[in-house]
Amino acid sequence: MFLRRILTGGGGLAALRAARAVKETTGIVGLEVAPNAREVLIGLYTRTLKEIEAVPKDEGYRKAVESFTNHRLQICQEEDDWKRIEDRIGCGQVEELIEEAEDELKLIAKMIVRFNVILCLNEWQNGIRGVSLMTTNVR
């Protein structure tokens, strides 16, 4: 019905093009248009939420990442149009959001290593204290 209205006088071909706007360029040197940006973002945000589970629940970093990622994922699932996604998220073009999500995944991997190192150091420190206390008590 929508298509029939457009083609029979509701705006013609121009209205049809506007209804399905195609981005030709990002206007940013080196940043190519992602024709399937919505699907890419949904995949990246889903992966981010899965990978952030490796960070301890009480960490502020995890809470922040889960919060903004859930918000952005919800928008991407609700909207089909890349322009509406950009407008509702309000943090740049979808291609920039893709780069940001990819960078966040790299950061999550580094944070997991960091938290594991801290955990190991704490366990090691506690182990040394336990050994030294045991040796002192053995006398």
Please work out how many helical segments DSSP would assign.
6
Structural class designation: mainly alpha
C-alpha geometry = elongated
Identify low-pLDDT runs.
1-6, 15-19, 132-139
Head-to-tail CA distance between termini: 91 Å
Let me know the number of strands: 0
Largest sheet: none
Q: Could you estimate the helical fraction of the residues in percent?
A: over 70%
Radius of gyration: 24 Å
Pfam families: ETC_C1_NDUFA5
Family: Belongs to the complex I NDUFA5 subunit family.
InterPro entries: NDUFA5
Main location: mitochondrion
What does this structure look like?
There is one protein chain. The protein has six helices and no strands. The longest helix is centred in the last third of the chain and has 45 residues. 73% of the residues lie in helices and 0% in strands. It has two domains: 27 residues, no CATH class; 86 residues, no CATH class. The protein is an all-alpha fold and 139 residues long. Keywords: Electron transport, Membrane, Mitochondrion, Mitochondrion inner membrane, Respiratory chain, Transport. Belongs to the complex I NDUFA5 subunit family. InterPro entries: NDUFA5 (IPR006806).
Jot down its keywords:
mainly alpha; electron transport; 73% helix; 2 domains; transport; respiratory chain; 6 helices; mitochondrion; 139 residues
Task: Please give a quick description of this structure.
Keywords: Electron transport, Membrane, Mitochondrion, Mitochondrion inner membrane, Respiratory chain, Transport. The chain has 139 residues and is mainly α.
